[in-house]
């Protein structure tokens, strides 16, 4: 059990550190996303009105699809800047557009999945439609669009984290995260680094 705990929490300390930082950035991104969505809802047409009819079909794009996309783009740029400088600290290792292009691509893939989920949550005929009796849009807390957006974010964030770590911020792939490397250097300088574990039958290195 001890070895399992060591493997999960010590050997993977870098991943836990990144996930914690990513979560902090994501939390601020949710706030930015929600504020942008509220602003669009209050200043734009009714979010359930038709924005564009899809020719030759019985389907259409509604204003809430556009609102969700715009609020996503605002939050996506916000999250990228913070992840680049705070979470992955890759600003010194790669160009801005070189990282933002895949970050945006990952976000768009997740957002397209999210728009499909949002449609199912908003459509009254959907089996997973949010209840209109409770979420009747009478107040902010009872606005169906806001709750649908939060559910979409909760579903798509884990996918975004995995794809961004493996692809977007390539400077952290296969290496030590810059912030953790700085911590290890500081520990060695201050003499607080943990003692190395000796393998049975081996001897510690001796100075020549």
TrEMBL record:
GO terms for cellular component: plasma membrane. Residues 180-208 are annotated as: Disordered. The chain crosses the membrane at residues 20-41, 61-80, 101-125, 145-163. Keywords: Membrane, Transmembrane, Transmembrane helix. It is a multi-pass membrane protein. Its main location: membrane. InterPro entries: GtrA_CellWall_Glycosyl, GtrA_DPMS_TM. GO terms for biological process: polysaccharide biosynthetic process. This is Putative flippase GtrA. The lineage of its organism: Bacteria, Bacillati, Actinomycetota, Actinomycetes, Propionibacteriales.
